[in-house]
Design goal:
heterodimer, A: alpha/beta, nine-stranded mixed beta sheet, 6 helices, 14 strands, globular, B: 320 residues, alpha/beta, three-stranded antiparallel beta sheet, cell membrane (chain B), metal ion binding (chain B)
């Protein structure tokens, strides 16, 4: 191994575990509440892991958000907005979170935020990255995938000029989303809870080993990169006229080829996928995305390489 | 154990009046999407509902809740058809569902009167793994029981268990109670706010079959006596909670998705966040339903325990 391929990165001391960024995604809500009572499970030597309930008002009402989606407002406009007059609750909350764990993009910001989400889609335990160029998070994904083997742990890359959004976790230097499904909104399933817990454990183990000086050799991981969002067919009044086709339902991360069934109208007509290449759909039939005009997103498989990594 | 077995079946059918006006309600709960989508579709194109001997009226139960994709706005509409709510002055109350219940009662009732609709279907979904559950008030709903029997025998949809939903000693205050007879469909598992093609197709098939039954009945078909298995809710079980009211355990993996399967004394029912199993402490076998239904967290119900029984029903035929 060429030594110049080993990246020397700063230790990751300040770690936060976010639950309830969306108040009805209950695995993270209940794990964070549990860890706030008894944090033994998330304590590791060489790092501080802080469990944090991101949107307590939405949690209380068991809904996704109160005024607007907290996981979309961590952009400079909202974070810099003056808090006078009517400002949505989540924008105020975003500013609080930014001052507690950020400021976003600044050296004082938290090193790592693991943001815990659930989806109604059959995505399994998915890791979400915001950039392809952060060797630390790539190495972390590689470590978690290895640890979970033979269970799969897809990595979703949310890197796109227009589809990327300003997430809660983006206040940290290294943001990672953990998206586990299928689980209905407002429901807590033991199996999904267990899966999420395992991912967090392995993630914290990685940080601990990294801080302790373990060197991680260069690696390559397969990721699914977001390409497009696909809306439901709608009528003139914007009402949905078709549902996800049974052949596509629950088939997150499976290839969707040109001509494959995509939607089924209420009249019983199949609408095929008319793209030119094979894609890998995900977030298929996510409840929260109906209002975002999104039936699923398409991804392409790519390989990403990370340099070797060692603490500086 | 069998309960509710009636005396030997009568030799003559019971004669019941024909059904002229039938209503189909979707969206009593605004985030249970199978019924919402089907009723919206039928409002555009009702041809699939039409039969020769009766009139079918589809309607959205709680349009504001549907618009916001929530269960309800102010209170659960499906618990609002009690005289106390139907008889208050609507202007006295600012709760949307009370006003809406009164509207529905005016259009399809009045509840308990001779002008009320003959039959109402109410289309629901659950996050629990209940299959295509048929909800009837009680075994004394002769016509609904025959409809269930017909569905179980003729519908291509498998696993349509019958559940009696009227709490013992209480009056029915569900939406369907406005009509003279009713049947609610409770299909799951389906998350709130999600429409799955498989659930939609099942609900549609059951509805078609149920309307066929009414058509046959109206045409004078004799439906012979039968015995049928059904489940009756006997108690509700809440989640274990911390002193502050927060849930301290989840449904045990062995119980999750096992609706209508026997739960024996000592079987694990919950698992704490520390990984400890909590065992069932009753001294009898029950058949749990509504296991991990999202909407029941706030009703302090983790699941409902039912008893299975066999119920004898006399023959029926349309009276002249």
């Amino acid at each position: 191994m060429n030594s110049c391929q080993v990246l020397r990165d700063a230790p990751v001391r300040k770690v936060a575990l976010f639950g309830g960024t969306h108040g009805n995604e209950l695995s993270g809500v209940f794990l964070v509440k549990h860890w706030q009572e008894d944090g033994a499970e998330i304590q590791r030597p060489g790092l501080e892991a802080r469990p944090f309930l991101a949107n307590p008002r939405a949690v209380e009402k068991c809904c996704r958000y109160v005024d607007c989606d907290l996981n979309r407002v961590f952009d400079s406009e909202n974070l810099g907005k003056e808090l006078t007059g009517h400002v949505p609750y989540e924008v105020r909350r975003a500013q609080e979170i930014n001052s507690l764990f950020g400021p976003k993009g600044q050296p004082e910001a938290y090193d790592l935020i693991l943001d815990l989400h659930n989806t109604t889609a059959n995505m399994g335990g998915t890791l979400i990255l915001e950039t392809s160029r952060d060797c630390f998070t790539l190495q972390m994904c590689h470590y978690i995938q290895d640890a979970l083997w033979p269970d799969s742990c897809p990595v979703f890359l949310l890197e796109h000029p227009s589809l990327k959004y300003a997430t809660t976790r983006s206040v940290a230097k290294h943001p990672v989303g953990i998206e586990v499904g299928p689980q209905p909104q407002g429901v807590l399933r033991a199996d999904i809870l267990g899966k999420m817990r395992k991912i967090v454990q392995h993630g914290l183990d990685f940080v601990q080993k990294f801080n302790a000086g373990q060197e991680f050799p260069p690696c390559t991981i397969e990721i699914y990169k977001i390409m497009e969002k696909v809306d439901y067919p709608r009528d003139k009044k914007n009402e949905i006229t078709a549902v996800i086709h049974p052949n596509l339902q629950d088939r997150d991360w499976q290839p969707l080829n040109p001509g494959d069934p995509m939607f089924l109208t209420l009249e019983g007509k199949t609408i095929p996928y008319e793209g030119e290449t094979t894609v890998y759909p995900t977030f298929v039939n996510e409840a929260a995305y109906y209002e975002k005009q999104q039936a699923f997103v398409t991804t392409v498989k790519e390989k990403l390489s990370a340099k070797g990594l060692k603490v500086s | 154990m069998e309960q509710g077995l009636k005396p030997p079946v009568m030799s003559h059918p019971q004669y019941l009046p024909s059904l002229r006006r039938v209503a189909v309600c979707g969206g009593t709960h605004g985030n249970e999407m199978s019924g919402v989508y089907l009723v919206k579709h039928w409002l555009q194109d009702p041809s699939e509902l039409q039969r020769s001997t009766f009139q079918v009226t589809p309607f959205v139960g709680n349009p504001r809740a549907v618009e916001q994709c929530v269960r309800y706005i102010g209170r659960d509409l499906n618990r609002t058809f009690a005289p106390a709510f139907l008889n208050t002055k609507a202007s006295d109350s600012d709760l949307y569902e009370i006003q809406r219940a009164q509207e529905i009662n005016q259009i399809f009732g009045p509840k308990g009167s001779s002008q009320a609709y003959d039959f109402m279907f109410d289309l629901h979904n659950t996050t629990a793994n209940m299959g295509s559950c048929l909800l009837v008030n009680s075994e004394s709903n002769l016509l609904s029981m025959h409809m269930c029997n017909y569905i179980q025998k003729h519908c291509t949809v498998r696993h349509c268990p019958i559940l009696f939903c009227q709490p013992p000693g209480e009056e029915a205050n569900f939406t369907m109670s406005v009509a003279k007879n009713g049947l609610a469909l409770e299909l799951g598992p389906q998350p709130q706010g999600v429409a799955r093609a498989d659930q939609l197709a099942k609900m549609r098939s059951i509805m078609a079959c149920a309307l066929d039954f009414i058509e046959l009945f109206n045409k004078g078909t004799l439906f012979p006596a039968f015995e049928i298995e059904a489940y009756k809710v006997v108690r509700r079980t809440d989640f274990p909670r911390y002193p502050n009211g927060e849930i301290s355990a989840v449904i045990h993996p062995n119980l999750q998705d096992k609706d209508f399967q026997p739960l024996k004394p000592g079987d694990p029912v919950f698992q704490t966040f520390d990984g400890e199993d909590i065992l069932d402490d009753s001294d009898d076998t029950f058949f749990p339903v509504f296991i991990n239904e999202a909407a029941y967290y706030e009703k302090k119900t983790a699941f409902c325990k039912t008893k299975k029984g066999t119920f004898a029903q006399p023959a029926i035929q349309k009276g002249f």
